Amino acid sequence: MLKKLLVASIVSAAVVACSSTKPPVVEAAVSEPVVAEPAPMPVASAPEVASAPVVSNHNSVYFGFNEYDIKEGYNGVVKANSNYLAASAPAKVQVQGNTDDIGSVEYNLALGQKRADAVKKALIAGGASSAQVEATSNGKLKPKYSNDTDASRAQNRRADIMYKADQPTGYSEDSNGLPIVDGDVYTGSVAEGVQ
User: Fold this and answer.
1) pLDDT tens string 103-132
2) Which residues contact 133 (CB under 8 A, 6 or more apart)?
3) Angle 149-155-156 (CA atoms, 0-180°, nearest 5)?
4) Integer Cα distance of 17 and 37 in angstroms
5) Which CATH number describes the domain made up of 54-191?
6) Where do the domains of the chain lie?
7) pLDDT confidence bin for 187, thresholds 50/70/90
8) pTM of the model
9) CA atoms of 193 and 46, how far apart (whole Å)
């Protein structure tokens, strides 16, 4: 029994000796090394273009980079042409879709066709008959502007509404071969190029 008492005393002394009134030491947390995620692959984006000049006489719809939806600012010129076509059954137009020089010939021919088709659809929705409107694509093959600046590329992203029969009074083509109209056809204005 003495042995048991002696063992109990030693254990008690050891427990007392191990206890302390000092605050526990907190070790600093070791953080995981930060691994940088790889940079995303660059994606072609719309070139930044200074504000486009506003013209009042182009019979064209301009598009943003790699786009073929008609922006609200071009609804007036589309409506003016669809009204004229609806009122003049013999009138015929060819909508020519154009692009800038970024991308392959095949891609740009397809994009130009989508632009021309969008304008054709809008003209028909506005009252023109499908027999009056032909949609074609030049893609990047027949640029009217040089494609050497972002601004000139923006001017090449368009669909031209070219009259082929019974053109309205005030319709002509400028020195670049772009269709133009005067106030007899459309009295609003359009931005020549879209950001």
Assistant:
1) 999 999 999 999 999 999 999 999 999 999
2) 85, 92, 93, 95, 120, 123, 124
3) 95
4) 51
5) 3.30.1330.60
6) 54-191
7) confident
8) 0.72
9) 12
How many Cβ atoms sit within 10 Å of the Cβ of residue 178?
21
Beta-bridge mates of residue 93: 133, 163
The encoded tokens of residue 27 equal: 């070790």
Angle at alpha carbon of residue 171, lines to 169 and 176, rounded to 5°? 160
Beta carbons within 8 Å of 112's beta carbon, 6+ residues apart: 96, 97, 98, 99, 137, 138, 139, 140, 159
Q: Which 3 state secondary structure label does DSSP give 4?
A: helix
Reduced to 3 states (helix: H, G, I; strand: E, B; else coil), residue 176 is: coil
For 59-69, write each residue's pLDDT tens digit.
999 999 999 99
> What beta strand segments (E) does 89-170 contain?
92-98, 133-139, 158-165
Q: What H or E segment, with its residue span, contains residue 155?
A: helix 150-156
Region of residue 12 (phi > 0: left; psi between -120 and 50: alpha; otherwise: beta): alpha
Q: How far is CA 28 from CA 24, 25, 170, in A?
A: 13, 10, 82
